[in-house]
Amino acid sequence: MSTVLVTGGAGYIGSHACKRLAEAGHVPVTYDNLSTGWSDAVKFGPFEQGDLLDRPRLDEVFARHKPQAVMHFAALSDVGQSMRAPALYWRNNVVGSMTLLDAATAAGTPHFVFSSTCATYGEQDGVMLDETCVQQPINAYGGSKRAVEDMLRDYGRDGRLTHVTFRYFNVAGADPDRQVGEFHRPETHLIPLALDAVRGRRDALTIYGTDYATPDGTCIRDYVHVLDLVDAHLKGLEYLIAGGGSEVFNLGTGRGFSVREVIDAVSAVTETTVPAVEGARRPGDCTALVSGSRRAEQVLGWTPRRSTLPQMIADAWGWHQMPGYTA
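Structure tokens predicted for UDP-glucose 4-epimerase (327 residues):
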């Protein structure tokens, strides 16, 4: 049994990761400032409230729990907001991550699993993206994540820290046991927005851009189930503990779906037409992002098992119908 510090453990992906870690016999310690996370989502281990920019608080938490590893999910991740307020993203995502890395290395914590993003690749004309593709982010969110990747490589040069970086694509779905799920305020992700529109929690879903160079004019994204995603993080942690070297992996399915295809799938699962209106493109949005993930399969033995579009929507739909769910 090992103790793992999970930054952002009160958020969507982090809370699912904490559940998976606990199931595997680890002790997940959530570190979260609750700016976007929820205390109700901390159910599987100790909770330490704090900010990534607060070095004394981080030092205190490392000293108390003595984690063997860090899983770093805490970040701002709204592409549109990153275009409007880039300084916010560089300060929170980059300076915060550097402060965390300084605290981890000072405490002698040897392993680091980092939540990165396909947004580091930028616009590449629908190329199947793998780990060899050039990184050329077109928004501050992607730029901030690429900077942390660079930082991790440099921090690891002296051998005190090994890391696994996961560049993942659009995360969807929810815990089928309905203990945790996807809940943002404001909500920015396509599937929960569509489900909110079905439930009448918003008048309509806005389709941002219908003139992209795709078959139906809307953006194409690769969707991966949150349970498959956190399973990869557990495999990455076990790989590091077993003595594996620092690595970078994409996480996706290799299949992209357009916004309109997702809307049609939500309508099919819920048996309700999704009310939708067309809007203008958002700055910073790429045309298509689809993952090649063979490296994760070859090195970690990771295969997405729940990442079909109907399954992801059905699991999310179950969570959205939970008593007490509020958007």
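Residues 190-221+254-320 form a domain with the UDP-galactose 4-epimerase; domain 1 fold (CATH 3.90.25.10).
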